[in-house]
Amino acid sequence: MKSFTKKIFSGTLNTTLLLVVVGLFGAYSFFIGHSVIAINQRKVLMGQIRTTQSAVSDSEIKYFNLASGIDMTTVSKLGFIDSETPDFAYTNPTGQDAVAVR
Description:
Helix content: over 70%
Order of helices and strands: HHHEE
Shape: elongated
Structural class: mainly alpha
Mean pLDDT: 84
Oligomer: single chain
Number of helices: 3
Number of domains: 1
Strand content: 5-15%
């Protein structure tokens, strides 16, 4: 007991307590700062995602408008002709059977 009271009055316990408190405050400040930085980065990323989604949506609208404008008359005007060959052909690996589906 005498050594404990001696430490209290000598100041070594106070110094240790002060160092612990300073260390805990430093750790607290680090984690709070890290959390704030992460929140700001998330806001920036959400803005970039929103911009990218808008660009993808615009591209989809352009694609569907172009795709809906293609019909048989447009195809024939561009010089494409109807093929006489089947659309799909299958051969048996043994080479005995062949199937063509149109």
